[in-house]
User: Fold these one by one.
Assistant:
Number 1:
Amino acid sequence: MFYYVLRRLATVVVMLFLITATTFALFFASPIDPARYTCGKNCTPIILEGNRKALGYDQPAIVQYGKFIQGLFVGREFPDNAELRAQYPEQIVECPAPCLGYSPSQHRTINEMVSEAWPISLSIAIGAFILWMLIGVGGGVVAALNKGRWQDRGIVGAALIGFSLPTFFVGLVLLTFPAIKWGWLPIPSYVPFFEDPVNWALNLVLPWITLAFFFAASYVRLTRAYMIETMSEDYIRTARAKGVGKWQVIVRHGLRASLTPIVTAAGLDLGTLLGGAIITESVFSMHGLGYLAVHSVTNMDLPTIVALVLIVSAFIVLANMVVDIAYGFIDPRVKLAG
Amino acid sequence: MAETSTAEARDVAGEVVGRTPWEITRARIRQDKVTLVAFGAAIFFILLALSAPLLTRFGVIDPYKANTDLVGGLGSMPIGPLGGVSGQHWMGVEPGTGRDLFARVISGLTVSLVVATLAVLLSVVLGTIIGIVSGSAGGRIDWFFSRLTDFFLSFPQTLMLVALSTIVIDILQAALGMERTPASMLFMILVMGLFGWPFFARIIRGQVLSLKEREFIEAARSLGAKQYRIYFKELLPHLWAPILVYTTLIMPQNIATEAALGFLGVGIQAPTPSFGSILNDSVHYATSDPAYFIFPGVTLFLVVLSFNLLGDGLRDALDPKADRQ
């Protein structure tokens, strides 16, 4: 078990290294001059050169990547140029480890931006996750147990509709009608949980529903398929024959065996969403990590994009690992090879 | 036993009629009314998309013509109910310019379907080749391609699509001397295609792993067939069922992705109509003219739904193990 975790962690590190290297190469070794993006409409060659030096874009891409990695472990200082730091000591920005970089469009460290955006993405992801797991798994189990009957057909039909409705469309409808036109709910804006939990939830209801809509639909389909498969296994018949109670058969024998693939999918989806629900956050203008990503892309804030790709990939890869380890606990048939 | 076909019932009752897998599939689909309707709808949308450029050419519709007389008042809102729906403008008109929304939606359908189809083709070709090679070659080649697949799958897809958009579009524009619209279409095709293949390759690889143990492959090999022949003449014909099913299932995902990226303002942009660019523009009028996002949104939903239903139906019909009770 210990060796398994260790080996997985090593793979995680290699994966993250490869992903950041690829992203870095795409952005900083491309034929497009990255300094051009830091300089708005009133760009003069002097400003352009100044920015290039301050952000370290004058160095080879491989050196820049080395500094990025170095910043992650020991922190770094901006401007990324010893001369400029000596010349303007009052402008030095400290970026302690794990330093994600410096945003040329917002003129502050990316760590600051991420620490502001992160609670919002977390709040959206957690609420939506609970909602979709309850509806999705519950709906899937009910459909599977009533296979072929009207309950099943209703649930499967609803799931297919939910699955086909684009997230941003659901979000727009929910924002326009219940929030703006009818005023049933506040127009979502983030209220920190520890300040006012009630308003926190009221403001997040619409983003939660929007996000959960699509996911609940896919989890209904997933759960139903696996439940049907499991419930036709011989051991379910054995359990029934030996007089195990109806619900115990369904939950202990049926659902538990179907949970493995569901947990895999849930872990990965949650991992992705922790890195920001891009579309939902954009529709409701919630300034989470996803919104930050779109915002940095429209402003061509390359260092922020690279940092966000790293964060989100880290969540995905880690979620993958956690899921694999969780297998051993959920499903006794799985043995982790050391 | 509601879904047992009459043909199947006859088999049981009397003489045994041999049927090819294709005949079984057709019989199953004919029984499945939902899939038939979805199939009809998908064909309808494809024909609509094909006809839009012709209709524009012959002047029946014009997605770019402004009708300033149909909008008015504060913010140039469409005159009339539901965003100015009338006999001439079935979905009303765009606020501001008064362009016919129906013309824009069906022209947008053309753009969206072209992008989605080409991206699917790219994913399918790459995924099939890599899946076949990886599954049948085994060893190091398989290890390499499997790791490559894992690597691609662990990229945060939506984020990468968003993140890469501006820079790749800039590179394409600079390198190929393209305009903004074709460059963004090419970007969508390339990136959706390149992120779509790993999923495909996994499925194909799994199929190949079981197929390659079968006698006919061994027979071909012992007759001295070359690798190429085994890959594309022996294995490929057995893979058309998963290829067809997953093509149909990835298609709606690509249509939705194009719309989502356009909506975020990083995909195809106005004035070129596509689901994404229309819905992106409609956000500004969401409160004052909800019809402007509801008509295109519902159309998009119906297109995606019809492809999803068709894909599900095909999967059920083509899967020999599918439960037909």
Number 2:
Amino acid sequence: MSELDDLRAPIDPQQEAEVLVDKGVPTGGEAFETGSQFKLILQTFLENKLAVVGLGLVFAAVIFCFLGPHFYHTNQVTTTYNINLPPGKGHPLGTDQNGYDVLGRLMVGGQSSLEIGFSVAIIATLFGVAWGAVAGFLGGVVDTVMMRIVDAFLAIPTLLLLIYLASVFHPTLKLLIIVIAGVSWLSPARLVRGEALSLRVRDYVKAVRVMGGGSRRIVARHIVPNAIGTIVVNATFQVADAILVMAVLSYLGLGLPPPAANWGGMLSDGVNYVYAGYWWLIYPAGFAIILTVVAFNLIGDAIRDSLEVRLQRR
Amino acid sequence: MVSKKVRRIAAAMASTAAAATLLAACGSGSSSSTATTSSGTTKVSGGTVNFAEGPGATPNYIFPLSSGAYFSVTNLSQFQELMYRPLYWFGQGTTPIINYKLSLANPPVFSNNDKTVTVTLKNYKWSNGAPVDARDVVFWMNMLKANKANWAAYVPGAFPDNVVSYQATGPNTVVFNLNASYNPTWFTYNELSQITPMPMAWDVTAAGQAAPSETSTTAPDLTPTGAQAVYKFLDAQAKDTSTYTTSPIWSVVDGPWKLQSFTSQGKAVFVPNPTYSGPVKPTISKFVELPFTTDSAEFNVLRSGSGLQYGYIPVADLSQKSLLTSSGFTFNPWILFSFNYWVVNFNNPTVGPIIDQAYVRQAIQHLVDQPQWISSFLKGYGVPSYGPVPIVPANSFADQKERNNPYPFSVSAATDLLKSHGWTINANGTDTCSNPGTGANQCGKGIAQGAQLAFNLQYASGVQATAQMMAALKSAGAQAGINISLTSAPFDQVIGNATPCTATQAACKWQMENWGGGWVYAPDYYPTGGELYQTGAGANFGSYSDPKADSLIATTHTAPASQTQSALNAYQDYIVQSLPVIFQPNADYQLSEVSSTLHGVQQNPYGNLLPEEWYFTK
């Protein structure tokens, strides 16, 4: 049979593959249907059961804090003299030292804590990313100056600075967000700056330059998007950290003044009654803080795994 | 805790008081190191007593001539006077009267129709061997005359303005010539009581400078300029807490205790002054004052059973009282001759004109539910303050109006007052002035259309009951449309802010300050309030000024003996009505818990500590 005959013969795919293997020619494996990158990330994220639990906890916290008060009505402004009542009829989690219903206060306090957490994370991440990306991309003197500023701020003990600012200024929700964000942007700035130093010498960045792309375009369209994994993971940790910082400030008596509430402040007030056995002033707020912080940390871990290229190809 | 002269108290509110362990040793004069027996127990010499300072109230000023920012029980009664004794001592056990036995001088002799006062000192010694004599009293007077503006107890027209001349007529005798006849009791209780003799070793203007001799005619204090230079130096030294134990200035003492060590956090360690020449010499070998930021932090240490011999239990932890009793502590509330209030700043450029309106202060006073606060937040360990004269401990000074509340809790009464003076009520919002002017039904002088009824109130942190009261106040205020923004700060910061000021000064930003403990009448032991409410008085922190109040106060100083009480009644009745401050419940100073092995503890009604009377048994 001539070679021409061979070509004319019907081709059996299985047979052809075997032939190619026999000839030492590389072949493709089993074909899979592939989706978008987002779908892949989501799939990886959802494979992490702890992440799903964390996501569920955050979702539950948001529902509890923001929708809960619409179904469970309490007066969290006017104090009463029904103070430190144990859990019972009318007050499922008792009342606190000012006569506020603890369950309702958990909801209202959670609003402040979550608002601070999310707001600080957004502000600190946006500012820190911009700062770090610019410093890392431009390099040289600009980088040196910008990062020494970051180093200088990092050298100041955070808690001391927060205590000072909180004592000088009248604490409000907005002010505390700004103050906490003011000390929280340093971490993402350093992280993104490190990423930018690495990314700015990549071929595709050089290609953009060759094609006339400006620095602003490179930073916005190439540096930051390629550092998105680091940024997003850090942002989730920022949420948890901000809630904890707020709790610490409240514990030190420098949080939001009454009648405003937050979980840290509730815990701080409750600790005064630890020997009196008023557990309902301590455990609910404590658990709320722990669960929320853990939830955000689980989410952060999962996002990191999802954005990790090697794990996506497993 | 507070200081002397009109001192400010930090409410530990937790308290102590070693109940029944009142000591018989007081006045024994024994400094023997040998054991004696008392009530079937063996008295031993030596041992260390750890005493808990009030929450956030730490000593930070050692010089006895204190300004308002340092005029506290913590600084005066429980720190300075352990080392530097005042001319006259007050408090016999728990009774609020003068104690000549522990005083540096014999009873004053009044003559010349009560216009001349002769004081004779006893034979006390400074730790450097010099006598505590008439020259030391003259030194104090010279310093006071030249620096009265820096003295918290200064009352214009009163001490030292009413002293025309003073001179040492002998080694131990000082004669004061007054510009008018004064009530002997008032002059002794409120003016001579202010004097703390100072050693000549302090009569210097720079470190290392040689002190002048008592007979020197060129001593710095002999001229006003020189006395001001001495004050400037000593004030700077007193603010430098790091040098308290190393300074040759402060090491010269005439009290029973010397400062061995001191930290900037407020831990003070005292050891007996071996040359103390008073009647009661220390038995214990060390007295330690320990700082705490909150009452709960203090209670943690107290409950551990090993850190404190003299502490206090917070109201929130009263359920633990029996546990402490079983651990060997004795519970005894410490009640001072004091009353409680928070100050409002009449000179604040923003809210001063509003605070200046009596009806506004009355409206705010209507929001203070004193009986309920005492019941709910103090668990009954307190009494109402309706006026400037304490109703406990039992005394003859308070009249009936001090016992009846002229402004009972009523939100509607508060809103009625405001509405009748041109304010538009905005419950759960902020009231606004809608009828400006000076008419009877208008907002008042200096209040513009649309002005808001909003105040900032800073209170001392660390005491749960104070925080509860302020939260309740804010809540009640919101119902009346009086918007009170609360912040908290350590006690020392609060009293540092609450100083008299003028509207143009940066320091006049404060609007309301509540250090939680009010005022104990010491060293102004006769409760005429001149230091608190007379125009220009050093402790008139809110700069209240009312000609009628000034007149009534002046009358209490000069009234003949037959009219003493009626003058005092007229004064206190007017203050109850006019409200120069906002009155609030007066909690027991502290709910003391004293180790049962520590004896001799009698809780002085003016807040003084007398650890030289304490001893351990075995």
Number 3:
Amino acid sequence: MSTTMRALLGATALCMASGMALAETLTIATVNNGDMIRMQGLTEDFTAKHPDIQLEWVTLEENVLRQRVTTDIATKGGQYDVMTIGTYEVPIWGKQGWLVSLNDLPAEYDVDDLLPAIRGGLTVDGNLYAAPFYGESSMVMYRTDLMEKAGLTMPEAPTWDFIKQAAIAMTDKAGEVYGICLRGKAGWGENMAFLTATANSFGAKWFDMDWKPQFDSEPWANTLNFYLDLMAQAGPPGASNNGFNENLALFQQGKCGMWIDATVAASFVTGADSTVADKVGFALAPDNGLGKRGNWLWAWSLAIPAGSQKTDAAKAFVAWATSKEYLALVAEKEGWPNVPPGTRTSLYENPEYQKVPFAKMTLDSINSADPTHPTVDEVPYVGVQFVAIPEFQGIATAVGQQFSAALAGQTSAADALAAAQALTTREMTKAGYIK
Amino acid sequence: MARAVTNRRKTIATAAAWTIGFLIFFPILWTVLTSFKSEADAIASPPKFLFFDWTLENYATVQERSNYFRHFWNSVVISVGSTLIGLAIAIPAAWAMAFVPGKRTKDVLMWMLSTKMLPPVGVLVPIYLIFRDTGLLDTRTGLVIVLTLINLPIIVWMLYTYFKEIPADILEAARMDGASLRSEILYVLTPMAVPGIASTLLLNIILAWNEAFWTLNLTAAKAAPLTAFIASYSSPEGLFYAKLSAASTMAIAPILIMGWFSQKQLVRGLTFGAVK
């Protein structure tokens, strides 16, 4: 081998070794949903722009992920450099000092382009602690053909009374068509997400300004009685076991007249797997004329744990995944309907995206939710379909079990509310909120 | 007449056994069938049993999205490693308890079993902190240690039960012939207890393979076994049942095949000493 060849080989080996030494690997924890999986498929764009950063994905089911990242961040385990977390965790973890502030993202990131409602939910004391990857609210999805058959027209912003009237009119139990499908499965992110948001529109609230639980109030009784009565008259059988997926399956098979759930469902019910794809209309979540609608607000967001040693690389990744350029990349590769919704104003100003059937309703739904003022009366907490305190998950799941039991007919509305009041008072006293 | 009754009984017993076997196996069969359906067929109502458009699309998607072989290899190392280390510790321990019982042997056995009564989540944070400080988080070594410790009581109990069935006189005879303690355990006791040891080995590999609490909580990207592989396909927002079924089928297939081939040893070991 000639000396030149040897020198060349040596130089190449050295370059490879130094390249490997410089390469940083980011471990990213994320949830299994369509938008996140799509992002994993498009990361070549990021690694081409940042050849010194490699990505390692940990995809987990939502509840497993929540438990996993909570353990890691609370113990400063340092297993993840980027975490996918929701609007529930951000205010709590931000306050604890567990997250890296994202106030110094580059100017071209255009942080002012983020939708104000979503940005507000991810900001604590003026610090942005997570960048939204996709945002969602809830809205009414309905069958246009069944609505027409019932001789009714869905308003853009319906009331609960109209929803009830339409649900009863659309129901044909013998033909296995049910006027309305709503969540009934117990869980703080299941039936309680829906019922808490609904309660807001009935003038109810979880706590008063002294953190005293309010399940013994009239608005909560009205909320629960309305829900149980509506489901008894126009809901599917076994509704107390139904969550998002079960209702999605029913709607796709043409068995629901209306479904009030996450805006992200719009792309599923109008997608290839749906038997009713061309017969779906959208409307805002209902209200009762009290100034609050029964819709929630959620954003899956990317955050950097304070324990990460690779903050700069992590920030580069977060900025890429939540940028305008990423939205354009998805549109180019997968089409506009597949662009992660609900994060940027500029997306909704784009004439191409405005052609997507559910685009306007998603934006209007998100804009009509205010996590900092979620209820008719003043409350000491933030969060629309949750209360951003660490105790909420446990308490709301226990309350959700009571309400699910009432839906299954195992207990009465009054008994379920009394049990909810008792258990919430006990837990809040134990946690030191009630003196 | 007696023969007729016996035959009828035999038929009924066989039918009952097949029915129970089918009922137990049905969820696995359904998972396998769903893995060959489209997502729309997977949620069809009424459910489609065999007459649907069979597709391999879900397997292709799973294969494309995940590194199956890395998860598989992690599962093999963790389950086989923890079981072998567990056996190496448990065989001498069970020998001592079975053949040289002390005053407190029964108490020790009960204490070992009592460690299984604590819900694992109760010790998650302390173990997580120990793993963080010793650099064992997201390592196969860490998981081998944890699974060895978790399954050790079961291994000791199973071996103790098998060893108790072996006449102590045989071991005594070996000792009289001048066998050392090591030779006694290795060349006399172990060969006689092979069915018991084999079934303990197989059962513990299955337990370790299916363990989903520690393997999910102590791993991230590098050491994650097949349990994490399955968890990555479950989703509360989106109907991915067919893909989840394909991932589940791929995860259980190796252990199912192993169980199938070793069922004779398993049954023999589990009924060892049952009939005297």
